[in-house]
Amino acid sequence: MKSVVGMVVSNKMQKSVVVAVDRLFHHKIYNRYVKRTSKFMAHDENNQCNIGDRVRLDPSRPLSKRKNWVVAEILKKARIYIPPSVDNAAASSTKTKTLAS
Which domains, from first to last, does the chain contain? Predict the structure, then answer.
């Protein structure tokens, strides 16, 4: 097996992530390119991966029943939206009220 590149779709487990890997192949009958997605469970030792990250997976020995891959590197981090906290929202609303007065 060789290393594959995919997108993290789940990181709800401890030290594990689910990575979706897309591949294109030519369908002889339809004479079109078809996209297929495979999901692999991979070992993420330091819990660094987030949903949306682009990662490279390397094959390894079986680590559990379904986990045969290790996250080799994070190629691109996802941009994560952090909503404003309640304290910041309250502070900004009082500023606008004082400015309007």
Answer: 4-76 (2.40.50.140)
